[in-house]
Write a structure and sequence with these properties.
This protein has about 375 residues and is of the alpha+beta class. It is about 50% helix and about 15% strand.
Length: about 375
């Protein structure tokens, strides 16, 4: 969609400049020299219609055959461009409506505009097909669903904070420990819980298990294993070259969250026997290391929490608590597909389904 929109912007600017240059229409007042807005495109259409109508009137009133022929020839280009600019207006409106529907997403379904195309776990065709769906989040205790919400974005990372807000606003006060898997581990999420909530996150991050393996700990090209000198604020690479601190870098993701990195650069990678294994930087460029200090501190806190006997045991119960709720929902109730469209209706249907899960478990427990 963005590529098509960019193409429209480029083409409409080009044709507008041509119209003004050839004095077919007068120059219009623009908000930006880079993009013609829908309103401005409509103004161009109006100017072209005036030009075409004026030429048509002159043609009809002229009795000179030669003059009429010249006027028809002069009308040809404005008439063609009028049709094209009308098309630009229609397309521009379509793209604007689509972008408004997208919001922060990268896709939506035409049959359910609240749904987003996602890769489903139950991919029976095994070909990675995308299907319109929702991301269901559940908070559980003792294999009972205590809170839930549905989101149109496919990544768990981005649903974490909104779901905690849903729990606090509509269900209950957050417990002392918030337990979740690595799909929820991110700097933004850790920051939210540590700084904004009266709770402790027991949430792993993507590389948590890999970092604990002997292979990772013995890998000399893993920057986590490089010697750090606090006094000189530098790292030493496998070739005994120093990577010294150069500057700070800030990166902001598409959701507006900003991260700060310390950038270190090697003094010289020239002639290094480990170059091909250590870096993909082009010849002439040196190895760089980006260190997110806050992220490293957060990970250290998580490692400490999960290595503690008490909190480690609490985290270990995650799989046998929340996963059975989804398993019961799919296997026992056969609830594998939504029967309604629209986020509000989907939310209601999920509420009834999870209520059924809780009632069946409660009934089974009371029966014993």
């Amino acid at each position: 969609m963005e590529n098509y929109s960019a193409g429209l912007i480029e083409r409409s600017n080009q044709l507008y400049d041509e119209l003004v240059e050839k004095e077919i229409i007068p120059e219009i007042e623009r908000e930006s020299p880079e993009v013609l807005s829908t309103k401005e495109l409509a103004k161009v259409v109006g100017k072209l219609e005036d030009t075409v109508d004026e030429l048509t009137t002159t043609i009809e009133s002229s009795k000179d055959v030669s003059e009429r022929k010249q006027l028809r020839s002069a009308r040809k280009m404005p008439k063609q461009l009028l049709k094209q600019f009308k098309d630009f207006v229609a397309r521009k409106q379509k793209y604007e409506q689509a972008m408004a529907t997208f919001g922060t997403r990268n896709s939506y379904s035409k049959t359910d505009r609240d749904a987003t195309f996602m890769r489903m776990k139950d991919d029976y065709m095994k070909n990675g097909q995308l299907k319109a769906g929702y991301n269901v989040q559940i908070a559980s205790e003792g294999q009972h669903a205590l809170a839930y919400d549905v989101f149109p974005n496919p990544t768990d990372t981005r649903t974490f904070i909104p779901f905690l807000n849903t729990i606090e606003n509509h269900f209950f006060t957050l417990p002392k420990y918030i337990v979740a898997d690595a799909g929820y581990g991110s700097e933004e999420n850790y920051e939210d819980v540590f700084e904004n909530r009266t709770a402790t996150p027991l949430i792993t991050y993507n590389m948590y298990r890999k970092e604990k393996t002997k292979r990772a700990q013995k890998n000399k090209f893993n920057t986590a294993n490089w010697k750090y000198d606090e006094e000189t604020d530098s790292f030493t690479c496998p070739n005994n070259q120093q990577l010294t601190f150069r500057h700070l870098s800030h990166k902001t993701d598409r959701n507006g969250f900003s991260r700060e990195f310390k950038v270190y650069e090697c003094e010289s990678c020239t002639g290094c026997p480990f170059r091909s294994e250590c870096t993909k930087a082009k010849e002439g460029n040196h190895r760089k290391l980006l260190l997110n200090v806050k992220w490293e501190q957060q990970k250290e806190k998580i490692r400490t929490l999960l290595s503690d006997e008490k909190t480690g045991e609490i985290y270990g119960r995650r799989k046998i608590d929340v996963e059975p709720v989804f398993g019961f929902l799919k296997a026992n109730l056969g609830f594998t597909r939504l029967s309604v469209r629209g986020q509000e209706r989907v939310q209601n249907e999920m509420g009834f389904a999870l209520m059924a899960v809780n009632l069946r478990k409660l009934t089974a427990r009371n029966a014993t």
